[in-house]
Fold:
Amino acid sequence: MKRNGFMVCLIILMTGCFHLCIEYPVERQIMNVSELYTRARFKCPARSSHYRFVIGLPYINGKCDWERKPPHFSGTVKVVSGTNVIYNLPIQETKLTPCNWLTHKHNLDGWIVDFKQSLTNFVIGNEYEVQVDLADNPDTTFSLWLCYLGYGKLDR
Structure:
């Protein structure tokens, strides 16, 4: 009887640990951008890591285009906390990396903004302002997403 109780406790403990150790991708839209200057606020999500900003562009002719060239606009994505600039990422064709992170669930072609820049200065629970400043008006409205790994229970 003691052995069965121990096994039940062990199974419950292992199941709980499994739920805490699951990592899963999350995509959260921050804003739509159609003007030279756009800004929005977001709160850094709990149980998260490995942040990247991704530009989402609508499909051409309703289909994903793996051969699509990077968008031709340029500017910056700035993240501000109070008066402190946390990140100042350039939006440049040469620094955009294509990805499929927005393809299946959101029907968008995705472009990671400066993949080599690690976004590690976010503090979970803090609120930030994101400012997108473009050199020219974009040809089409695009969206800016915060993509990251969530962990813990799969509660999306």
Notes: The chain has two helices and nine strands. The chain has one domain: 24-151.
